[in-house]
TrEMBL record:
Enzyme class: isomerase
PANTHER family: PRIMOSOMAL PROTEIN N
Entry-linked Pfam families: Helicase_C (PF00271), PriA_3primeBD (PF17764), PriA_C (PF18074), ResIII (PF04851), Zn_ribbon_PriA (PF18319)
Enzyme Commission (EC) number: 5.6.2.4
Residues annotated as binding Zn(2+) 1: C500, C503, C540, C543
UniProt protein name: Replication restart protein PriA
Molecular function (Gene Ontology), one example: hydrolase activity
Protein's job: Initiates the restart of stalled replication forks, which reloads the replicative helicase on sites other than the origin of replication. Recognizes and binds to abandoned replication forks and remodels them to uncover a helicase loading site. Promotes assembly of the primosome at these replication forks.
HAMAP family per UniProt: PriA
């Protein structure tokens, strides 16, 4: 008997980071489940808070407050997810409620009203008792004695539940019609009602069911409405999935026959499905057919009656990518990424929850997809930093994947052409099973040749700032051969900043210690951190000089230069500015793929996953931007990016070439990228990491403290460091506190402390202590972020 519910309430504080007990009133006992969302009174004022039921108890001695309302007929979380939050809490210094909420589509975390709608199958008696003469009923108005009955009917699908969030319907429906042919043929509409006669004629000739929306389009809605009101048309509603149209447009494709290396990988992986196994690291060069391998693994998983999750970095979730999965597995696929509307996300979630979707392809948060019986979890481009969430809760999808794979005895495959140094080291130590693909899958494709061009060698010879003569000659050559070119510039905006040549004044954001970026499309100076906008200065605000100039480069400037140099070339630009609109990304790639442009010029979003056979030249305009960042992973990131972008060239018969322009041609990251020598890079980088005690030799935790008052912040930061020193062992290295590389944003100063450790039993407890300490009244405006294995030191 469920008498007491254990509830985690939506109050993200250390003191409330545990379940509270509530009495379950009799009328709710059959309705409530583990994973249900509830409203419960909390605190002295008994304000109603939302919460999740995580467990039940039989009894307790003390008098308890009661659960006020159960929000769901079907629990929104399952037991695995609730356990997952408990396990994650050891390394993610956020609160359980934040972890649980991260597992749900945002629509279910917002305030809404629950609406009950009878379905066709509901018996006339039940309909009368529950709904009376109403078409639908708000759950708030439901007679409480009927709650159990309604729950039963909702669970068996006879009552539909809709959530009205901020006046928006979460469930999308389409209205269809039936023609009442008998009545329609007998009616006389008179000769003057021309429109009505037309519709009558049409319906008598085409009397199968159809969509009301289509009739409205062809015959105007007042006419259609007249027909409905007179009973010539009967209407009914059908639930829709917002992505049905998108899925409908994808054609089926066949599985490719694997080559021996691919087959070997698929065999090694699939034989472990359903057993506890080590994670697999699949290191396969670009174009080696990793995606085809994933498709075969999933095929096997489905044949075993199991399900699969495929994680792909957000910017690689191109239509090209998703189509490959949909074209093989059709409606069994659900796609989840941030480009979807809240409603679309909710639909995909429901599709998974109901069991229709068995293969989830998505970005980071798709790792929480509520699949049952998982057979495989695949993380493509496992080196991507985007798998770490940079805001609360700061989890890494790989860590979550490890926990879920263990729970389900699923295989976990981490795939990349350039694995992180950490993952590759784990493979060397046997923590991961190491699998490799060393050849391009298309037997005619070859590995591209790479040329490094030193900007310093061509000073004074350039026609335009972004293009060396070597690169330009190469581009001209491809244009003449009717081949395609991809150019990458790792920056957005027109110019990066504005500087006075006389006094050195730089136009900076008043809220953040960072220069403003010039945007020609909006003719403004923008802050990329806080969104501050200002006019473009014509004279220097400090010395009134007119020698104010634009420095740095941007995709738009490169585009303008290129257009002036090659007036006949058809160029498309792809960056954050040109892809802001929904579907724009898709359109650009489609145009380029169909040969509608000769040159694709873009930011790093072009480095991933593009597979166009006619691309024979890839140019990297400036390899240095990521090299000089104050982050120990700067070299690794640069190497990865250059290798990825080089992989876009020569993917079919035509040989590919890569030109990298740089001011640092001898930097090891660029040299190893030039030789496409991952192993060389790995060994060199491991040496550096060992010398500097960085991962994978040490684990790291980053603490970022923020406050408006810098003096106070420094003071508090030292207090935190003292706490760490006194509780942790001598072996731990503590760096800082130091100002962050970008020391101020949104009018807040930021200081950071880095902890480096190998084994440290006390660490979790100390960090939780610090979290609790920051909530003392004395520290009211102090903010803290505790980041386990931070991926971004900026
Ligand atoms: P990766 O994910 O490693 O970059 P893909 O799976 O995208 O590689 O494969 C690269 C190209 O090779 C694609 O065009 C794909 O269709 C093709 N390909 C993959 N496997 C095979 C195969 N076994 N036979 C023929 N072509 C293949
Ligand atoms: Zn000046
Ligand atoms: Zn700013």
């Amino acid at each position: 008997m469920k008498k007491i519910a254990q509830v985690i309430v939506d109050m993200p504080l250390m003191q409330t980071d545990k379940p509270f007990s509530y009495d379950i009133p009799k009328h709710l006992r059959d309705v409530i489940s583990v994973g249900s969302r509830v409203h419960v009174p909390f605190g002295n004022g008994n304000r109603l808070l939302q919460g999740f039921v995580v467990d039940f108890l039989d009894e307790t001695d003390t008098a308890l407050k009661s659960v006020a309302e159960v929000l769901d007929f079907e629990p929104v979380l399952n037991k695995e997810q609730i356990e997952l939050a408990d396990k994650m809490r050891h390394t993610v210094f956020s609160y359980k409620i934040s972890l649980l909420k991260a597992m749900l589509p945002s629509l279910l975390n917002s305030q809404y009203e629950k609406l009950l709608i009878p379905r066709e199958t509901l018996s006339e008696d039940d309909r009368q008792v529950i709904f009376g003469s109403q078409f639908s009923l708000s759950a708030n108005d439901l007679d409480k004695t009927l709650e159990n009955k309604v729950t039963r009917l909702a669970r068996s699908g006879q009552i539909q539940v809709d959530y009205l969030a901020k006046d928006r319907k979460t469930i999308k429906t389409e209205t269809f019609y039936n023609v009442n042919k008998q009545r329609l043929s007998e009616v006389d509409l008179g000769n003057r009602a021309k429109k009505r006669l037309e519709l009558q004629q049409y319906l008598l000739e085409n009397s199968q069911d159809g969509k009301i929306a289509e009739l409205n389009k062809c015959f105007s809605s007042p006419v259609v409405k007249y027909f409905i009101e007179h009973g010539f048309l009967e209407t009914y509603k059908v639930e829709q999935n917002r992505s049905d149209d998108y899925f409908g447009r994808v054609e089926e494709t066949d599985f490719l026959t694997l080559n021996a290396q691919q087959q070997n990988v698929v065999d090694s992986v699939t034989e472990k499905i359903g057993q506890e196994s080590k994670p697999f690291l699949l290191q396969g060069i670009t174009g080696s057919g990793k995606t085809e391998v994933y498709l075969h693994i999933i095929d096997k998983v489905l044949k075993l009656g199991k399900t699969a999750i495929v994680l792909v970095p957000e910017i690689s979730l191109t239509p090209q990518m998703t189509h490959r999965f949909i074209s093989r597995f059709g409606n069994q696929v659900a796609i989840m990424h941030s480009g979807l509307s809240d409603g679309e996300k909710f639909d995909e979630w429901r599709k998974i929850k109901s069991g229709q979707a068995k293969v989830v392809v998505g970005a980071r948060s798709a790792i929480f997809a509520p699949l049952e019986n998982i057979g495989a979890i695949i993380i493509d481009e496992e080196h991507e930093a985007t798998y770490k969430q940079e805001s609360n809760p700061r989890y890494h999808a790989r860590d979550v994947a490890l926990l879920r794979a263990k729970y389900h005895e699923a295989v976990l495959v981490l795939g990349s052409a350039t694995p992180t140094i950490e993952s590759r080291a784990r493979a060397s130590k046997g923590v991961y099973e190491f699998l490799r693909l060393t050849q391009r899958a298309n037997p005619l494709a070859t590995i591209p040749t790479v040329q490094v061009v030193d900007f310093k060698d061509v000073i004074g010879q350039q026609e335009a700032s972004n293009f060396t003569p070597v690169l330009l000659d190469n581009i001209r050559d491809r244009l003449a051969k009717k081949e395609q070119v991809v150019l990458m510039l790792n920056r957005r905006g027109y110019s990066s900043f504005v500087m006075c040549r006389d006094c050195g004044y730089v136009d900076e954001c008043p809220n953040c210690d960072i220069s403003l970026t010039l945007h020609m499309d909006t003719r403004t100076m923008n802050c990329h951190y806080c969104g501050h906008q200002a006019a473009i200065p014509n004279v220097c605000p400090d010395c009134q000089s007119r020698s104010i100039r634009y420095y740095g480069t941007g995709t738009q400037k490169a585009y303008d230069e290129l257009e002036a140099l090659l007036p006949d070339a058809r160029i498309i630009r792809m960056d954050v500015d040109t892809t802001r609109q929904k579907g724009a990304h898709e359109k650009i790639l489609e145009t380029f793929g169909n040969g509608g442009a000769d040159i694709l010029l873009g930011t790093q979003m072009i480095a991933k996953g593009l597979d166009f056979p006619n691309v024979t030249l890839v140019g990297v305009l400036n390899a240095d931007t990521s090299l000089n960042l104050p982050d120990f992973r700067a070299a690794e990131r640069t190497f990865q990016l250059l290798t990825q972008v080089a992989g876009r060239a020569g993917r079919a018969e035509k040989a590919g070439e890569v030109v990298i322009q740089t001011y640092n041609p001898n930097h090891y990251a660029i040299q190893f990228a030039k030789n496409q020598d991952y192993e060389g890079f790995y060994n060199y980088e491991m040496d550096i990491r060992r010398q500097l005690s960085y991962p994978p030799y040490y684990y790291t935790v980053g603490l970022t403290l923020s406050h408006r008052d810098e003096t106070l912040l420094v003071n508090k930061s030292y207090q935190v460091m003292e706490k760490l020193r006194s509780y942790l062992s001598e072996k731990v290295k503590i760096l800082g506190p130091t100002p962050k590389p970008i020391a101020r944003t949104h009018n807040l100063y930021h200081y950071q402390i880095i902890i480096k450790y190998r084994f440290e039993d006390n660490l979790e407890a100390v960090l939780n202590d610090i979290l609790e300490w920051t909530q003392e009244p004395d520290n009211k405006d102090l903010r803290i972020a505790i980041d386990h294995e931070p991926q971004n030191m900026m």
